[in-house]
Amino acid sequence: MNFEFNETHVMIQEMARKFAEEELAPTADQRDEKEEFPHEAVKKMADLGFMGMMVPEQWEGAGLDTISYVLAMIEISKADASAGVIMSVNNSLVCWGLDTYGTEAQKQQYLRELASGRKLGAFALSEPEAGSDATNQRTTATNDGDSYVLNGTKNFITNGANADVVLVMAATDRSRGAKGVSAFIVDKGSKGFSVAKKEKKLGIRSSDTVSLAFEDCRVPKENLIGEEGFGIKFALKTLDGGRIGIAAQALGIAQASLDAAVKYSKERKAFEKPIANFQAIQFKLADMATNLEAAKMLTFKAAHLKDIGENYGPASAMAKLYASKIAVESALEAIQIHGGYGYVREYNVERYLRDAKITEIYEGTSEIQRVVISRALLG
Q1: pTM confidence score
Q2: Whole-Å CA distances, 126 to 131, 132, 137, 191
């Protein structure tokens, strides 16, 4: 494996870092406090090509590889993990799914707008009774003439309140279980489609997370993705790539935690010397850095496998499992190194911990990642 980034990778990384430091970092705490969606920042991310990074240029995407996407996600998430997950959902769960499985007409109508960032997308799989058991879809889609009629509720939907387009999984035949779930493209403003409860969250607070309600919502038949019964396969294939994005988000949080801990340990003095001089602190920093590098290797391996067209599902599960664990541990260690100051909002490390925890939960819990990995091992 080549461990060197090419010129494009370096350019993307530097561009993302500059944007994150200048546009996101100065106001990240303020948005977190107010639970304020970063509208202007998302527009600027679109201008930079960050909202459709892996979509071919013919559909107004950036036409870049997954390695570039991971590098950009790390830099964005270092500054603001909320902006990171907004970007991840639009790239990994929405644009990739439409680019890979959408019809020519669907790409013309939807993918161009989403990849360019003129519109924002959301991915609606989770329900009150369908979390890790994604096959237990209670939202239904009834075939009715030239439309499907959707009824049901989705919850924990990232970008849900601000999305223009939502990819919705719904049961077209509940008697068939997983084989009876289909995927649909639903436009914001469709009659019978509404945004319900907005969640009050521990972390990633400037990213909106809401429930969506469908009450006799008519969706044109041409908005069916693939064929009837393709929904669970579509969701699982899409989530394989999404986990690379979340792993990259976790890497960004872990890197921010390490950077903050190193900086503080050089500034804070105890017994008339910087605490960085004490072996207890040095060992914490060494472990944080080593674990972070290992998580990076897992994530870049998954991205590389995706780019060369190999099976990357188990690798993406490993990357998300380990990177999310390291994000939480790194944030906890950063707080410990900061002592009492790490527990108050004057410093960013408490936000890093709040933001890190969700990476172990969404797009498949750590337990589900272990299921994916073990199944790959056992066949």
Answers
A1: 0.96
A2: 5, 8, 8, 21
